[in-house]
Specification:
Helices cover 23% and strands 24% of the residues. It is of the alpha+beta class. Strands 1, 2, 3, 4, 5, 6 and 7 form a seven-stranded mixed beta sheet that branches. Helix 2 packs parallel to helix 3.
């Protein structure tokens, strides 16, 4: 029997400690909450993707009465970026959530489906995606999707 240890490289900081470009990306996500469609949960999630051409793409969660037919902000954002700018990779993705009239205290993390989509996007372009998870009181910075999805499914299983 062999023990395998999995670790993740995650940085915790305040919003004030973020680099200027990262602060702008988080602010872009937070400025987009009003575009979320969350009439059932009232939990609005917004994401902002920085592309390698300098463009910022925003997306939000879109709920549906026939749950789980809606989609998360991360997938909305990345699918739009991949569709509209297929030659440009996502370099950084900022994610924030809003509930009960304010940004949530602690950073939220992507769900399993979003992690898998983000990993596929990272592998599609052969380049890591930095993820900034922004809460009201702190941020977490992840340098690669594989840090938050270490035992993942990919095309190698088709061999």
């Amino acid at each position: 029997m062999k023990k395998i240890v999995i670790s993740a490289d995650i940085t915790e900081c305040s919003k004030a400690e973020l680099e200027e470009d990262d602060r702008r990306l988080v602010q872009s996500a937070e400025d987009f909450f009003d575009h979320a469609y969350a009439p059932y949960s009232k939990f609005k999630v917004s994401a902002a993707a920085l592309l390698d051409n300098g463009f910022i793409i925003n997306g939000t969660n879109q709920e549906n009465a026939a749950s789980p037919s809606g989609t998360c902000a991360e997938r909305t954002t990345v699918f739009y970026a991949n569709s509209m700018y297929p030659a440009n990779k996502v370099t950084t993705l900022a994610i924030s959530a809003w509930y009960d009239g304010q940004i949530v205290k602690n950073p939220i993390t992507p769900c399993g489906s979003c992690r898998q989509v983000l990993l596929e996007t990272e592998r599609r372009y052969g380049s890591p995606i930095r993820i900034i998870l922004a809460g009201r009181d702190k941020c977490l910075i992840v340098n690669s999707v594989s840090d938050i999805l270490p035992l993942n499914f990919d095309s190698s299983f088709f061999d």
